[in-house]
Amino acid sequence: MGIGEIIVIVMIGVVVYALFSMRKKPSEQEPPRDPADAGNQGSQGRQDNSRGFRAPGRRGYAKWVGGGLGWVFGGPIGAILGVALGSMFDGAGTAQSAYRGTPRGDFAMSLLVLSAAVMKADQRVLRSELDFVRAFFIRQFGEEEGNRLISMLQEILKQDINVQEVSMQVGRYTEYPVRLQLINYLFGIAAADGLYHPDEVDMISTIAGYMGVSSADFTSVKAMYVKSAGWAYDVLEITSNATNDEVKKAYREMAKKHHPDKVAHLGEDIKKSATEKFQKINAAYEEIKKQRGMA
After folding, report:
1. CB distance 77 to 113 below 8 Å
2. What is the DSSP string of 147-197?
3. What residues does each domain of the chain span?
4. Report field, pTM of the whole predicted structure over 0.85
5. Per-residue pLDDT of the chain (295 residues; tens, 9 = 90+)
6. Is 219 exposed, middle or buried (0-12, 13-18, 19+ CB in 10 A)?
7. Rounded to the nearest 10 degrees, what angle do helices 61-92 and 107-119 cross at?
């Protein structure tokens, strides 16, 4: 099912629900008001609105309709995006902010939800993290689409995310090289403030596990960002006891596995990020060669 069909179904559901919510049975009609009370009632209404109160059945319905339809057509990620879309619809009263991705297996939608999970892992969302994600999306998708996606991210951050279900869905509908690139991207968020909070690293590890990323590959990617004494060996997924021939073989295998061309179809910015990762693999190999005096 294409994105156009999904959006049409969501919008139809919202409109139908709105029409039924706004209709009242005769017995539910409010009694006539005394004209003398009109001013007080208006004042009270404004006071209620200033406190965030909403008339029951008039507002807030769109996100639940969107979430229900999102789950049907897009699984756990679709449900989260449906609620976010519905919340944006409620707030703006228009469909102008509707997202333009396909929930199931879509790289951009996966980025949105997993970004929110990592950003919330340490119980705070930093401006530096949001700026990192915004800059990435604008480079990747253009300013208009990037800002639209950031608006959705801000709504997703308000939700509880079932990391297991979401990560497993991403694992089912994305190729392995894409999953590895997702892990790299998430470490970029964690490093946005110059630090790697343990809770964020643990969250990325959890996501990687549920996506089906091997522990060796996760340790390799982590070593590219969180340096340790043996980081170069971790990047190549070998131990310091490996022979020189094993080091060379490991380097060739890692270079093949992480070659930027494997994610070129995701866009130039993703390919650029993959190229930077590829360079870190080269740096790890050069570090080991230097330590061992290898030719």
Report:
1. yes
2. HHHHHHHHHHTTS---HHHHHHHHHHHS-HHHHHHHHHHHHHHHTTTS---
3. 217-292
4. no
5. 444 444 444 444 544 444 444 444 444 444 444 444 444 444 444 344 433 333 334 344 333 333 333 434 467 777 777 766 665 554 444 333 343 443 333 677 788 899 999 999 999 899 999 999 999 888 877 888 888 888 889 889 988 899 999 899 888 888 888 888 889 889 989 988 888 889 999 999 999 999 999 999 999 999 988 888 889 999 999 999 999 999 999 999 988 888 888 777 776 767 777 788 888 899 999 999 999 998 7
6. middle
7. 90
Compute the Cα dihedral for 209, 210, 214, 218 and give only its sign. Answer: negative
CATH 3.40.50.620 is held by the domain 217-292: no
Candidates 33, 14, 141; CA nearest to 83 is 14
